[in-house]
Amino acid sequence: MKLRKKEFFEDKSDALDTDESLVKNKTNFCPPRNRNITLGNYIDFLTKFPLEELQVQDIKRSNLSKEEQNALQELRGDPEILIFKADKGGAVVVMDRTYYADKIFEMLHDSQTYEEITANRDKNVMKLIKELAGNYSHSLTEKEVNYVCHFDFKTSGFYGLAKKHKSKIICQEAKVQKKPYIRVLRPADLKFRPIVAGPRCPTSRLSNFVDILIKPFTLHVQSYLRDSIDFFNYLPKTVPESTILVSFDVTSLYKNINHELSVKAMEYWINKHTGRLNSRFSKEFIINSIVLILTNNTFTIDDRIFLRKKGTAMGTKMALGVQGWRSGESTRLPPMWPGFDSQIWHQM
């Protein structure tokens, strides 16, 4: 398929360059099989080539004993436990299912952050996205409209990752037990990182689109680090022996991102670096898109539907960009925008 497409579009590169679309749906287009006889013969030869004659017999052997394999199968089939990765460190957690459910719903009972709703809002959210795209149809290409509006969407799911590294009870038991595995029954201080898994939720495509549009602004945020290599490039060649490397952890960062402040911060950065904004799009389109995404974060768990009233979903692509604006220059150049109350910032 790839070879046929490459040959078909080889003479159409100039035409493809005129397409301004930043996002688009995948196409099922397949060039005619008999368009290029030579290429067709080559593909047929590769397809029919007897690869099995060249493959060496590979006998896969398990490094687990039969007893260990049987034990794993029994654990996987046990309906009373859950087996999943921990939030950090690559550890595997085996947890009582009822304890997990109690902890998750304990988190969702935070009425300031979550609200249980009675009806699924996905169709209404998609209607809002289509209205948004219609209002800015002069800016979006047809492919971009199709990308954000026309796809098979489904409701986001919700789950939690155990923050075992922040549980004092688990850390203390690890020192005492000194084993490859630590047994701790229902630690009272265990917290979970909330994950809204919505790769195909109604706002997922719009979130990805907005993320592409706001990424260029991150280059102007002094606290922005692209990756570990970027961090090393900022380190000085030599430091005094007394230097201490310090890191800070923000408690529930995504959960505590204020919607109103996030929007104002985004407006501030667009106004300050207008040249970074794609000329086809207006500030209003980005702001309205962000508001739509932030205020329509719904998810389901155990057939119950919730709306997130505060913060962003740790799972939507735009979330990283939004939280970045809040952390940007707040400690270096306050206020971040005219009228910004630094007291409010430090209380968050």
Describe the structure.
The chain is of the alpha+beta class and 348 residues long. The chain has one domain. It contains 14 helices and 7 strands. The strands form 3 sheets. The chain has a 3-stranded antiparallel β-sheet, with no helix packed on it. The longest helix has 14 residues. The chain is globular and about 70 Å long. The protein starts with a helix and ends with a helix.
SSE layout and pairings?
Elements: H1 2-8, H2 13-17, H3 37-48, H4 66-76, E1 81-85, E2 92-96, H5 97-108, E3 114-117, H6 122-135, H7 142-149, E4 157-162, H8 168-177, E5 192-197, H9 204-214, H10 228-234, H11 259-272, H12 283-295, E6 298-301, E7 304-308, H13 318-327, H14 342-347
Antiparallel strand pairs: 1-2, 3-7, 4-5, 6-7
Key traits:
two-stranded antiparallel ribbon; three-stranded antiparallel beta sheet; disordered C terminus; 14 helices; about 10% strand; globular; alpha+beta; about 350 residues
